[in-house]
């Protein structure tokens, strides 16, 4: 059973996918949000192409655990995805995943220009991997 992980942003959506067993997450691509609704079409294509059975959307919470305006936008996006895809869509606390992704890329000496292109995909991988790890603990 494959699971898709999404790091939803204003300009880009990072996409990651799990392996068949749901153990590991790998970055898949970054979807540029240029045309209204094009990102939903691309996500639908990926779900069908990879036979995805669940989606995990990163939920940006404030450090005190509350949900701010950005989190509300992500919740609405997750609801819209569920209506379109008709598969389970989960929200997952993504606090500090983008910061962690940036830090990892800096430590790997990836240039600023290249980081911009992969940080969202890496953040999606971290969100999905954290979700997968939580499922394996249970």
What are its keywords?
globular; 48% helix; single chain; alpha/beta; five-stranded mixed sheet; 138 residues
Overview of this protein structure:
The protein has 138 residues and is α/β, with parallel strands linked by helices. Helix content is 48%, strand content 25%. It contains 4 helices and 5 strands, in the order E-E-E-H-E-H-E-H-H. It has a 5-stranded mixed sheet, sandwiched between helices. Strand 4 (52-59), helix 2 (69-85) and strand 5 (89-93) form a beta-alpha-beta unit. Helix 3 packs across helix 4. The longest helix is centred in the last third of the chain and has 26 residues, at 112-137. The model has no long low-confidence stretch (mean pLDDT 88).
The helix content, as a percent range, equals 40-55%
Q: How many DSSP-defined strands? A: 5
Across the major sheet, the strand order is 3-2-1-4-5
| Biggest sheet record | 5 strands, mixed
**CA gyration radius, whole angstroms:** 14 Å
Q: What are the segments in which pLDDT stays under 50 over at least 5 consecutive residues? A: none
Binned strand content: 25-35%
Q: What pattern of helices and strands is seen along the backbone? A: EEEHEHEHH
Count, helices: 4
Helix-strand category = alpha/beta
Indicate the mean pLDDT. Answer: 88
What multimeric state do the chains show? single chain
């Amino acid at each position: 059973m494959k699971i898709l992980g999404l790091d939803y942003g204003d300009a880009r959506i990072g996409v990651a996918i799990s392996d068949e067993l749901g153990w590991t997450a790998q970055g898949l691509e970054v979807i540029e949000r240029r045309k209204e609704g094009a990102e939903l079409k691309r996500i639908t294509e990926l779900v069908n192409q990879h036979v995805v059975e669940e989606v995990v959307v990163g939920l940006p919470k404030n450090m005190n655990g509350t949900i701010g305006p950005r989190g509300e936008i992500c919740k609405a996006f997750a609801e819209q995805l569920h209506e379109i895809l008709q598969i389970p869509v989960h929200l997952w606390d993504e606090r500090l995943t983008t910061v962690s992704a940036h830090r990892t890329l800096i430590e790997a000496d990836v240039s600023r220009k290249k980081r911009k292109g992969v940080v969202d995909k890496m953040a999606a991988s971290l969100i999905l991997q954290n979700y997968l790890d939580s499922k394996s603990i249970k």
